[in-house]
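**User:** Everyone, produce a chain:

**Assistant:**
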Amino acid sequence: MARADRGGELMAPAATNLPAELRGAVLLAGAGVSGRGAARLLARLGADVTVADDNPDNRDNVAAETGAATLSTAEAAAALDSFGIVVTSPGWRPDTPLLTAAVDAGLEVIGDVELCFRLDRAGVFGAPRTWLAVTGTNGKTTTTGMLAAMMQQAGRDTGRRAAACGNIGVAVSDAIVDPERVDVLVAELSSFQLHWSSHLVPDAGALLNLAEDHIDWHGSFAAYGADKTKVLRAATAVAGTDDEEVARLVAATGRGDIVGFTLAEPADNQVGVSGGRIVARLGGETTDLASAEGIEPAGAAGVYDALAAAAVAFSQGARPHHIQAALDGYRVAGHRGAVVHSAGGVDWVDNSKATNPHAAHSALLGAGPVVWVAGGQLKGADVTDLVREHAGQFRAVALLGADRDILRAACERHAPDVPLFVTDSADPVTAMDEAVAFAARHAQPGEKVLLAPAAASLDMYSGMAERGDIFAAAAARHARG
């Protein structure tokens, strides 16, 4: 893969700079999107790559695209002594037989983001980049987008190009080989990607919050939290100290230099909200960074994400006018709290991305009176605290999906006087249409109808995007006024 210097002249990547562990035979576990990206990256560098996958079509596709040899996972397990390292797709669980066999054989197993970090730090694609990592259970995409916008504003003055990557739509592997060099990688990282990392120490890292999620993959909440907390190894670490679990893990690091962010008045070494402003109190100095008003998405969740992004951006040289300009121009990604319809004084808000109770709590926080539309696959999550805490906001509740009866029981117990509708329809359009029609009858001017399901969508929908789109279409049909 060629790369470009500042004048646009194409230059070959420095394959001779490959880290020692990548100069021998490399086994890639998985030939899906991430696996193919890693295979392309290593093949362009002339590495000796073999790809293991049990899907014949995936194997054929990666072989045609990269020229890599391919094996089934059983064949790869039988030939582990032929390889020096394993690079796994992030979704492969730690207990996958091929990966456990590799660990038992003494092979190092790393993920695709870890691979990119090692290549970048080795200077394979020029001078190492600045890595800004964002993780947490909820709010990662919004925070990453805000932070990238802030660094892009700063880049207008410094000449350093910034880009969002990772789970936000552009793979890290594509960002580091972009012919137009990206100097600042603003990476949204999942717990899976962090699990398969060891050398990855970003220049700045932000841990937003922690709640039970992906426990089946990690094995326990403690293991999930330990993987997320890896971002706090960064030279500059930022953490959401309003979250009790995050605050506990920050204390456990023993570091006194981690910058906290809070919706409250900030103490020293924190970024918080004071008089409607985002304010940093660092090193005995107070700096007004931006307005806390008019941020999208609206409500406490949007401000919380903006605080995290501002804290990281300020640490990396962005000035208040850069931060303010970025927040002024930032628009929330689809299904993350956007107002998709307004009529008769009622806003219809699509937060289909709120796929667990913690995310639904963030969506409800500060939203005012709402008609709540919820339901789907709870994946064993407990909704009791969510319903109890927000019962006073509910003007009515409409439930759908596989675990609707669990939500129904919580509402009947903790919000017994709130009008409740439950659809038993398993048809995705009909179920949402019935829920939205009920919501339209109960929502009053000045209130919101909020889709914040607290549950995954795959019981009825192809994903959270389809669920949100169907909600928006139904809102346009049924909204009064």
About this structure: The first helix runs from residue 33 to 44.
